[in-house]
Amino acid sequence: MADALEDFYAIIPAGGIGSRLWPLSRADAPKFLHDLTGSGTSLLRQTWDRLAPLAGDQRIMVVTGRAHRAAVEAQLPGVADHNVVLESEPKDSTAAIGLAAAILRRREPDVVIGSFAADHVIGDARGFRRSVREAVAAARAGYVTTIGITPTEPAIGFGYIHAHGDTLGIDGAPTAHAVRSFVEKPDLDTARSYVEQGTYLWNAGMFIARADVLLAEIGRTKPELLAGLEELADAWDTSARGAVVDAVWPGLEKIAIDYTVAEPAAAAGRMAVVPGDFDWDDVGDFASLAKLQSGGRANNLAVLGDGARILADSASGIVVSHSQRLISLIGVEDIVVVDTPDALLVTTSANAQRVKGVVDALKISGRGDVL
Fold first, then answer.
1. Does the structure show a pLDDT above 70 at 296?
2. What is the pLDDT confidence band of residue 181, given thresholds at 50, 70 and 90?
3. Using CA atoms, how far apart are residues 32 and 347, in angstroms rounded to an integer?
4. Which position among 46, 168, 253, 305 has the lowest Cβ density within 10 Å, counted as fewest Cβ atoms?
């Protein structure tokens, strides 16, 4: 593609089941494989379409579970076979992104990689790509870079990035700031103070860096994990891959890249952030899905599902119907109803985050047939 960045490779980690969206999102049909926006394409496909103009179809790597290979390749017919990295079991984001970075560094030593979740919603693709181009410029300068979303409200469901007041003065990245720290999800009063201060951004989990820089950060905090990833990458494009994966992958530490790279790099002054003014949503639960579907209008009832049969009178919230059952709602506010052939969820928007607890309880009770 004419406008693609020559030294850039995009990585899409497509893992996790999106447990707060159960029973819509399942182990065999996770969140990223669903169309949650009504666009006619899945969240994974939308992510690919945002990244293709930046990287080109042949420079996008997808890291996913073995069980999802067929579905991923069906949704992404343009993905090159050597750019599909299959995990035998989930090991969290450090292993997924680190392995991709290690493989790509062997193919192209000076490559800049960017990791972008497969299951987020961004409407302003042009604004997104503008921010990524800045982040790539900052990465070329040696920083581990993230894109922080300018808050539109005091959200308590996201982590935050505390940015330094002054820009870093990087050519091609005029809005890049140093990261002071990453902070966990706050309570409401704290979130309000963050928004008022104007130096806090939502953490969208986007990471852009030279592959060698990212791997060096992993090596500083988790040298054994890095050694395993390097061993895997050495064998990846050879006939020894299968045996090495079977021997090494199960022993890798399961840990998020926030803890191995982002937080330590920020503490050492090696982390940059580019503020993103585009719309963004991680669709983390049914409350955020309802808000996304209703355009933020609290009195609306959002309905998802082909052929959904809904009768509603003075009702608001969201209904997701994947059955032919008639669902009637009368006089209920902020309700969440998710109807599938083998499981029914009824809750409220205020309790949407607690759905994960149901999934945990089902695992403990051994009822994995509905997970």
1. no
2. very high
3. 22
4. 253
Determine the pLDDT at residue 86.
95
User: With contact defined as beta carbons under 8 Å apart, do 59 and 107 qualify?
Assistant: no
Helices (H) and strands (E) in the chain, counts: 12, 15
Q: ∠ at Cα 96 (237, 29), nearest 5°?
A: 105
Counting other chains too, the contacts that 340-345 makes at CB distance below 8 Å and 24 or more residues apart are 340/23, 340/24, 342/23, 342/369, 342/370, 343/22, 343/23, 343/370, 344/23, 345/22, 345/23
Q: What is the 3-state secondary structure (H, E, C) of 256-311?
A: CHHHHHHHHHHHCCCEEEEEECCCCECCCCHHHHHHHHHCCCCCCEEEECCCCEEE
Count of positions (residues) in the chain: 371
**CA separation for the pair 330, 54 (Å, rounded):** 48
Question: What is the dihedral sign for C-alpha 33, 117, 121, 344?
Answer: positive
Amino acid at 283: V
Q: What is the DSSP letter of 150?
A: P
Q: How far is CA 85 from the centre of its chain?
A: 17
Instruction: Please report, as a single letter, which amino acid is at residue 122.
Output: I
Nearest to 10 by CA among 208, 142, 148: 208
Structure token digits, residue 287: 């409350």
Strands 317-321 and 301-304, sheet pairing: parallel
pLDDT, tens digit, 9 for 90 and up, residues 325-369: 999 999 999 999 999 999 999 999 989 989 989 888 988 988 878
Q: Which residues on neighbouring strands pair with residue 148, listed in sequence order? A: 203, 275
- Over the range 228-254, which residues count as b (16 or more CB within 10 Å of their CB) and which as e? bbbebbebbeeeeeeebbeebbeebee
